[in-house]
């Protein structure tokens, strides 16, 4: 009896826990049935398939909270207002038309100062093509008061460096120095732009260097884009090679260089930009004293472009070279000018297509569908989308590097993803691209040199410095419908230009590419 009494007491003490266990198990069972309740035995095969699909969609909409601990796979609109505050860009226009623009940074000890101007290969003639680039190579070869290596040595003695570049519509000469040497750098820049001697022996030496570079040819990305411009804008100034032709380089003389400076290095087409440890008033006073010999011709670059506008031609250029292992090619459509509102949407489309390099990895986990296809299938070494804008036109497309046996698959992937922008666009992809574009614009202006370059470029292009708040508002206004509208304007059933170099026998022909600029839907 005693043993039987103890067993009954033990059973009573365990009843609450067992009931609690039953409650938990029943609740978990009900939650499981909520998601994976099987269909009735009388359901047809189609009902079972539909039920299976519905359950999978429910799991996607309600993912395991463990995977959302540190973030979400769905992009969300990211505000950038907390990082939009920046120093004021001060702009002063001198009586001769020269614009002086500065952005001071109190926490910077270095500075970049330079001259940006509306001058480049586009403003040359067929006979003088190559003069702008030749002039850039000669500008630091001595002045009336500085010997051949004087300007560069003087900057290097300060601990800084001097640099320059020439593009199709823009030329720049700039120096990065310590804050205390900014005024000296302005003096050197003014001297080389107004008092360069261009001695014949220096011209002959530089001519030989340029000719060797031209005769050697190349298989670089720059060569692909040079050929792309030459075929896309053939018989127009924008299609001329920046470096010129061998025949022209052989005939360029001191008179050609001085004439180009007198014609195109005019103060209304120039911007003296500085950023970092600079004081606006000091640079303005220095510019007033030093920039006195340049021409004040009021002819603008826009007027010159209107006389010889660019004309896009659907065409291709192919240079077969079986002695290199990789093929490089670019496919481009005609885009819009820098001041067209749709240029912002094209920048978002560029981010949607993305860029990728085999050496960096991680492609299959990136947001761009094109990058995913390229990386997962291993059909390219690298690729990147580009959007280039000029004063009256532009180019939008994709540049890629691949092995010869991958060209067909790569071309199909590129054309499919570009054409798809006119048909099917995900709002998540657009939000992700907008966030990436805004971040890249902020990262691009990280440093005194990028800021000075941004100031010079925007003043030449827009006539003002666009605040980030305004620019980001324009970017946020781009949605999926905008992308499809802009893609239909520039990509859908449009002619395209192709440039290819290397072992490209397996690259599809022009008609193949042209046929894939649209989809047939029935």
Automatic annotation (TrEMBL):
The keyword Disulfide bond does not apply. Keywords: Hydrolase, Metal-binding, Metalloprotease, Mitochondrion, Protease, Zinc. Residues 252-437 form the Peptidase M16 C-terminal domain. It comes from the Eukaryota. Its cofactor is Zn(2+). Pfam families: Peptidase_M16, Peptidase_M16_C. Residues 17-30 have a biased composition (Low complexity). It is found in: Mitochondrion. The keyword Protease applies. Residues 99-245 form the Peptidase M16 N-terminal domain. InterPro entries: Metalloenz_LuxS/M16 (IPR011249), MPP/UQCRC_Complex (IPR050361), Pept_M16_N (IPR011765), Pept_M16_Zn_BS (IPR001431), Peptidase_M16_C (IPR007863). Gene3D superfamilies: Metalloenzyme, LuxS/M16 peptidase-like. Residues 17-39 are annotated as: Disordered. Belongs to the peptidase M16 family. This is Uncharacterized protein. It comes from Hibiscus sabdariffa (roselle). The lineage of its organism: Eukaryota, Viridiplantae, Streptophyta, Embryophyta, Tracheophyta.
